[in-house]
Design goal:
156 residues, alpha+beta, 3 helices, 4 strands, 38% helix, flat
């Protein structure tokens, strides 16, 4: 009962304070992007490009975005025979955004990691790694979209 009352009071407070979600009207098609350059492994840049889905407007004097994606795996635990049993998969996106006058607006790096169990079946391990890589890139693409929107809103 106390939880319900607390939630109602919290809801009334947030409703009356004028709170609106930042990404409520999130529309990347309205952002003026002149050029996006991707660098990194082809399979990862392909996924990132598809998840971002930002249209370039050549010659528009808009934002110039450089995105560099990289992957790193490192052994975390080993068994008594020295064979890796767990590894960390870390994916990093370096974001560099400049305006039409080549002034640096943002230089940031975002990353996400996932701990993976390593078994004796390499085919299964690679498939799990591929699925996790896809999931991480999807999450990082959303964070990248948010960064781009913040910079674009500040530059209006």
């Amino acid at each position: 009962m106390i939880k319900k009352i607390t939630l109602i009071i919290l809801g009334l407070f947030l409703y009356s304070c004028g709170f609106t979600p930042m990404l409520k009207n999130f529309d990347l098609s309205k952002i003026n992007v002149e050029e996006i350059k991707y660098s990194g492994p082809n399979s990862m840049t392909y996924l990132l490009k598809n998840y971002l889905d930002i249209n370039e407007k050549k010659g528009s004097q808009g934002l110039i975005i450089n995105l560099s994606i990289s992957e790193n795996t490192s052994s975390v635990t080993k068994n008594t025979a020295g064979i890796t049993t767990e590894q960390d998969l870390v994916i990093t996106i370096n974001i560099d955004i400049k305006d039409k006058n080549n002034i640096n607006l943002l230089n940031d790096s975002i990353s996400e990691n996932k701990r993976l169990t390593v078994s004796s079946n390499m085919g299964t391990d690679e498939e799990i790694k591929k699925i996790e890589r896809d999931s991480i890139i999807r999450n990082l693409a959303q964070k990248t979209k948010f960064q781009i929107q913040l910079i674009a809103n500040q530059n209006k």
